[in-house]
Each structure stands twice: as structure tokens, then as C-alpha cells.
Design goal:
286 residues, alpha+beta, Arc Repressor Mutant, subunit A, Chorismate lyase, 2 domains, 6-stranded antiparallel sheet, 12 strands, 24% helix, elongated
Length: 286
């Protein structure tokens, strides 16, 4: 008679690698390993339901449902699966991944020299040409600078800022969210404060140019973290998926003139691409 440790066995019509109770690897991790393999090999397609917990318990050598849930929890945290209350576990559909390149800022600055009618509606066009539909959800409010924003702008706490909350929706899916701040006294009384003018042709650099401010440098600070409940709801983020948080500061000379705190993007929807041109120190040329 074949031992459970000698090869695959069948249960409920599925061929499943057995659990090795002699292994140093915890059983729940073995369950996760094998389910991950089955998903990656296409046994369960995106959107498909996984077998029920009792069925998985039977398939995996009669392990307890607690062990099964622990294994499923690993895959949930990896972003491979998600649960629907009362319906079970499902393979998570993969979102389209788009490139977010550092070159978009030079492309945005290039818009400043064009007539408004010839500018692109948004600088994100360069990284999202494959999308058919674009929608910008926006809310503009006036807010006092807290400690963090006062430090960013190098102004006293309480200095009034224009806060622009943007949610970028591509082909019906919310893709990213940003909180962009401008010094209110720099834009007050101008078309920049009217949300009906968004998206502004040419983007933020063209907006600032319209009030006599030329952007000369951009800082980006990138980190990853887990989303908060508000971000999960606004961006339709699946269980276990972290976000990329990009903090951006635009400068005119040494003066900070715009700050995104932060641009938040689900990590399964973006690839960050950065290119740095280097000077040859021996020749002083690129």
C-alpha cells in the first residue's frame, strides 16, 4: 500500500501533493505551498473558487480546518486569494500593471512650452497610453498646514494651503490617489482653485507656470506600507496587497511650491521605473 509520503494522492477528483508530517516545515505552510503551486500552475484560474475548507482538510491528509485556515491566511497575505463572507475563498484576479517612469516629469515640463490646445490632458498619459478611458475624481479644499506640511513647505504651522484630492480612474478601475498641496497665497483667485479646470492641460507644472512659477526640480521619496481602511475602500484594494506611497515635492529654485503627501498606488498595479543620466567625470560629458 502506498504511503502518503510516497507521492500524490487523489481526493474529490483533485491530484494533490501529500502532507509530510515528518518534515520540519509546519503543516499549515505545506498546505499554503501546495495551494500556491496549484494556483500558479493554473488548476484554479483567476476568479475561480477554491475547494471548501472541509474539502481541503480532506485533500490534505485530514488536517484540521484550523490548519487549513492558517494556510489560506498565508496566501491571503500574499495577495493570491481573497474571501467572500459566506461564499468561500477565491483566486484573486490580477490587475493590469502600468509603468510609472521618472521621465514623466521632463515630459510634463515639455508641455509648458506648448499652446494649451496642444497639451496632453494629464502627464500620466505617457505611462498609461493603453487605457481607453480616463476619469479624474477631484475635491479641492483649503486647509491649514499641520506640522508635517509646514516642514515640507518651510512655512509656519497654520499657513493656508490648497489641498487637491485626486483619484485617477482608468478603464473604470481606481488606480491611484493623491493629496497634492499648493501654497494658497500663490494660487488664490486664479483658475487653479476651480475644480472644474481639472485635469489641467499639461498638469501641475503648466498650472504653476500660469502663475509665473517655473518648476526646476522634483524630489520623490518612495516607500511601501499596508493600506488604511479608507484607501482600501477608495482604491478597491484586495486583501494582503500593500500600497506604494510616493511623496513628491516640486521646487522652483530652492523653494518648495507643490507637495504630494502622498501618491498612493496599490502595489499590484504599478512598476516604478527610474533612469539616471550620469556624467563622465573625466570628460564632463554624458
Amino acid at each position: 500500500m502506498m504511503s502518503l509520503y510516497d507521492g500524490a494522492r487523489k481526493s474529490g477528483g483533485d491530484s494533490v501533493s501529500p502532507i509530510n508530517r515528518r518534515s520540519d516545515r509546519p503543516v499549515y505552510k505545506q498546505v499554503a505551498d501546495d495551494l500556491r503551486r496549484r494556483i500558479n500552475e493554473g488548476e484554479f484560474a483567476a476568479g475561480a473558487a477554491l475547494p471548501s475548507e472541509p474539502t481541503l482538510s480532506e485533500q490534505y491528509d485530514g488536517v484540521s480546518r484550523t490548519i487549513v485556515r492558517q494556510g489560506l491566511g498565508i496566501l491571503k497575505n500574499e495577495g493570491l486569494i481573497h474571501s467572500h463572507h459566506g461564499k468561500g475563498w477565491f483566486v484573486r484576479a490580477q490587475r493590469p500593471v502600468r509603468r510609472m517612469a521618472s521621465s514623466r516629469y521632463q515630459a510634463e515640463l515639455d508641455q509648458v512650452g506648448r499652446a494649451e490646445s496642444e497639451r496632453d490632458a494629464t502627464p500620466f498619459y505617457y505611462d498609461h497610453k493603453g487605457f481607453e478611458q480616463f476619469e479624474l475624481q477631484r475635491t479641492l479644499t483649503e486647509v491649514p498646514a499641520d506640522d508635517e506640511l509646514a516642514e515640507v513647505f518651510r512655512v509656519p504651522v497654520g499657513t493656508m494651503l490648497l489641498c487637491r484630492e485626486f483619484t485617477f480612474v482608468f478603464d473604470g478601475t481606481p488606480h491611484r490617489r493623491s493629496y497634492s498641496y499648493l501654497l494658497l497665497d500663490m494660487v488664490q483667485g486664479t483658475p487653479i482653485t476651480d475644480p472644474a479646470n481639472e485635469p489641467w492641460p499639461g498638469g501641475t507644472m503648466a498650472q504653476l507656470d500660469s502663475v509665473g512659477v517655473r518648476v526646476t526640480a522634483v524630489d520623490e521619496i518612495v516607500r511601501s506600507r499596508m493600506p488604511n481602511p479608507d484607501e482600501i475602500a477608495a482604491l478597491d484594494i484586495d486583501d494582503g496587497v500593500p500600497v506604494v506611497a510616493v511623496r513628491r515635492i516640486m521646487y522652483a529654485g530652492e523653494k518648495p511650491v507643490e507637495a504630494c503627501v502622498d501618491i498612493v498606488i496599490p502595489a499590484d498595479r504599478v512598476v516604478l521605473y527610474y533612469r539616471t543620466e550620469l556624467l563622465d567625470p573625466r570628460r564632463g560629458q554624458r
